[in-house]
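User: Could you go from structure to sequence for me? I need the amino acid at each position, not a summary. Structure tokens:
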């Protein structure tokens, strides 16, 4: 195993670091630092800066407008992005439907959609989960009945992140009923302005509007919007889910959180002493730092295996489980370090009549919202229990 990066890769890392230090707008950096949610305009503004630099799609092949970087460069780029506190581009277009379109789509679909995804002109949402289908996705019941050169969609999608901002949504729908639930599903691209689509907000535990319920009632879409063959959408669905777990360990952001925690522990006092001198707190912080290092080396080992052409194994599941558990543990310790100030709610929180000034250490008010929303991290992207099943199946099959 070789965990050293080449001189070229190290030079690349310096270039990326310099870019993030200078190109990330100060207002966006500040909001991310505070743990506050960005608006759609702020996200698009940042994504366009990445686009102008040619770095919006590190993993896409060059022929489709991506960087075509190898796994090492993608890793270095992602770590630097997290370390700099730069927002990760929204995955629904770039990481999910974009690769599905360039892998399985028609020339017309590629020509129409890919440039718009790269330029953040179209905002995508992911319509997979339903009220009766989450972990067991193949039990989905949305239907797409064919009539001439149109499909008529009926059903409900649930937990659809940012669908209230979306211009298009990709859905999995049943075009026929077959013996096996995975068969008869099609992958369909839908313009959100099509009549019959209703988006209703779901307010999550942090008090914000991230997710939605999207209802389709006799929604007519062209058959030309189907990606891949009719009834073979499960192939696209699985391909997309494998991409979804990329860079999920988010090492850069975790290291940044550790630095924030250390700074906070030096600045707040408990019992007349800096919190950093509290032996129990210091022990737990050191323990988390060790676990982040262990995760980093696990990711590097996986990276090394990928660079040597190894098959994709259970490692992405391990990275997802440990990455999200540590994300939650770090935000939990941050809450403890803030003590009573942890309850101060973020600026911008939609509470009628709210006019109090910020309290507590400056720049920490987004902590509680971040802590609460990060509870969802072990659920979305394939719950951690499902990831454990995947690890067990691969290991038992190999035993
Ligand atoms: C914040 C957030 C954003 C989301 N965004 C999107 C989105 O944009 N688009 C989209 O399509 N979906 C989205 N989801 C949905 C997400 O993919 C599902 O919540 C997830 O797949 C789990 O499905 P479920 O909620 O139906 O729970 P269930 O599948 O009903 O699971 C309930 C519990 O049972 C456990 N469980 C289920 N099956 C097994 C098993 N076989 N073995 C062991 N344990 C099991 C689960 O781990 C979980 O703890 C989002 C979810 C959240 C919370």
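Assistant: Here is the amino acid at each position, in order:
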């Amino acid at each position: 195993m070789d965990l050293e990066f080449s001189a070229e890769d190290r030079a690349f890392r310096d270039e990326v670091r310099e870019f993030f230090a200078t190109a990330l707008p100060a207002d966006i950096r500040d909001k991310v630092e505070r743990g506050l949610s960005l608006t759609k305009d702020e996200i698009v503004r940042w994504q366009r800066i990445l686009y102008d630099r040619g770095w919006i799609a590190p993993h896409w092949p060059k022929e489709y407008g991506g960087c075509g970087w190898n796994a090492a460069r993608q890793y270095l780029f992602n770590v630097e992005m997290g370390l700099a506190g730069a927002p990760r581009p929204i995955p629904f277009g770039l990481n999910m439907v974009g690769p599905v379109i360039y892998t399985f789509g028609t020339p017309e679909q590629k020509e129409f959609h890919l440039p718009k995804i790269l330029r953040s002109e179209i905002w995508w949402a992911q319509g997979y989960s339903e009220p009766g289908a989450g972990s067991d996705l193949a039990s989905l019941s949305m239907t797409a009945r064919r009539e001439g050169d149109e499909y008529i969609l009926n059903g409900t999608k649930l937990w659809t992140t940012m669908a209230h901002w979306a211009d298009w949504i990709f859905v999995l729908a049943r075009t026929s009923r077959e013996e096996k639930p995975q068969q008869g599903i099609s992958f369909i691209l839908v313009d959100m302005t099509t009549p019959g689509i209703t988006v209703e907000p779901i307010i999550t535990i942090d008090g914000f509007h991230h997710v939605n319920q999207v209802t389709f009632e006799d929604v007519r879409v062209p058959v030309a919007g189907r990606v891949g063959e009719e009834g073979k959408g499960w192939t696209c669905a699985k391909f997309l889910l494998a991409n979804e777990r990329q860079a999920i360990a988010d090492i850069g952001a975790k290291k940044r959180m550790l630095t924030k925690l250390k700074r906070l522990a030096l600045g707040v006092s408990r019992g007349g002493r800096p919190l950093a001198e509290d032996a129990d707190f210091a022990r737990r912080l050191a323990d988390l730092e060790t676990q982040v290092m262990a995760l980093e080396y696990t990711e590097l080992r996986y990276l090394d295996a990928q660079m040597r052409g190894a098959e994709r194994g259970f490692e992405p599941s391990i990275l997802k489980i440990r990455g999200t558990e540590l994300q939650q543990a770090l935000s939990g310790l941050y809450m403890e370090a803030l003590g009573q100030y942890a309850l101060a709610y973020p600026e911008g929180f939609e509470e009628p009549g709210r006019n109090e000034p910020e309290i507590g250490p400056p720049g920490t008010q987004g902590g509680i919202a971040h802590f609460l929303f990060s509870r969802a991290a072990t659920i979305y992207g394939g719950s951690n229990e499902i990831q454990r099943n995947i690890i067990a199946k691969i290991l038992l099959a190999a035993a």
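One structural detail worth keeping in mind: The chain has a mean pLDDT of 92.
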